[in-house]
Protein: Trehalose operon repressor
Amino acid sequence: MLNKHEIIYRDLTQKIVHGIYQKGDLIPSENELCELYGGSRETIRKAVKDLNENGFVQTIRGKGSIVLDLERFVFPVSGLTSYKELDASLHMHSATRVIGISDTLVPAAKFEFATELDLAATYIERVRVVHDEPIVVDRDYLLKDVVTAVPLAAAQNSLYEYVEHDLGLEVSYARKIITVEQPDTEVQDLLELTGNEPVVIVRSEVHLNDTTLFQFTESLHRIDKFKFTDFARRHVQ
Amino acid sequence: MLNKHEIIYRDLTQKIVHGIYQKGDLIPSENELCELYGGSRETIRKAVKDLNENGFVQTIRGKGSIVLDLERFVFPVSGLTSYKELDASLHMHSATRVIGISDTLVPAAKFEFATELDLAATYIERVRVVHDEPIVVDRDYLLKDVVTAVPLAAAQNSLYEYVEHDLGLEVSYARKIITVEQPDTEVQDLLELTGNEPVVIVRSEVHLNDTTLFQFTESLHRIDKFKFTDFARRHVQ
DNA sequence: TAGTGGTCTAGACCACGTC
DNA sequence: ACGTGGTCTAGACCACTAC
Structure:
């Protein structure tokens, strides 16, 4: 069940995406939106705030909310979105090849935020293939404390769908570190790297809603296929 | 003048940073905060929402807001923060070397979001030096339509301070694209690159509060010094 | 001056966690 | 049952923009 402000948000984004409100237009004023959707102003304002934060509109005091030029859907760096979801929203027609699932300990050396040692985990290694080219190697460590086992089908389809839908866990937030490094030989093979190119590595530490540490992830991207985008707002400290 | 919810937000962040509320603790409940700060619940909730979004706490329904482990201050990828501000908040002790200021047209080929051609701009090229090592080359194009001239002192100190404080403009949002590419020879020289290493390039298109396009930026980072962090929350589409 | 967004309030009802 | 956060309301006052 969606909240009222989410329903309003979605309706407005749809109207922007479908050109009912066009780039440069003002969307209806907050008071008009109150009448249109039958909501109070604070509720409408939550929806409009989300439009702002996601780069759909720019709100200007005394004037209104202007629709921005949105050409937004390339690979996002920030955010916490599963590969499966990206694939769906970007229509990438990508395939996933599962290299292996096994039991290991989390390699604490790789994850500087890993404070505890000898964390038992299920290790999943996958390659993302787009147009027959390997683009990304994903290495996931799901902590045994939280997820006891991972079926192959979940790794092939979507880990997050399994974790959230089947297990009923709520993935909530992550800390990420992005670097550029020389890959090990296994990754060189998997990504079919010929020269000595480095790869972009996004390492993250993912937590559940109740702050439980649940997953470490390493995504290794071929640099020639790496193109991330971001929409940022200025918040002065 | 700060808003009430901003004052409350700052006070709470200070208490977390200084350990008055420690990692794993619950901060006072929203009702208690209402009494503590003499505000209504929606006002307190705005402050707490900001704490969540910036990774200070995790709010759990029926339970409270738990202080997270914060080791947050490395170079952020997302966000829109000037180098000068990063320098100050990270205590990087960096220096800026201004290579040149001149008049040019914006090289539209580099910025795929640059729709119009032949935009007149002031071009500023700078190198950021930390511990005597060149780390980043910043290339800024400030549109002549908005900023007629840039004094050398502004380039040496902080462009954003000049633009926001002296000119009274409000920098508001940006679209960014992050890639890894081979640099041109000038950048190789400036960054003292010996081999054939690529660089990380963050290109952005920056707008003012009133949606005016105002600046194009290209930041070229040495990959061995590149380490970005991010705090991300999951928002399911 | 009228309309816009920005902030804040006091109160209501609900869903969830704890005990 | 009680306290927690999550949502929504109706109304107020202010600051800014446009005319």
Observations:
- Strands of chain A lie at 57-60, 64-67, 94-105, 120-130, 133-143, 171-181, 199-208, 213-222, 227-233.
- The CA atoms of residues 72 and 225 of chain A lie 18 Å apart.
